[in-house]
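Please, is this right?
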Amino acid sequence: MAMRKGQPPGCESNIKALREKAGYTQESLAHKLGVSLSSVQSWERGKNGLWGFYWAIKLCRALNCNIEDLLRKENGDKID
């Protein structure tokens, strides 16, 4: 599958439903994640952003590791 702009098809409704179930507004989720409100809005409209996450998850599954293993700094520090 080639890299595409946007995100895996159909997940925009998942993002919104999961956000609402967790009790977040778009703005509060953006603040928690340290991203702009427009980023969250774009994810929920299917406009951009999640293909990187999608491929990171697929890579972790293929390598039998978790996301922290993948993103760990060279000095061994974990992500905060």
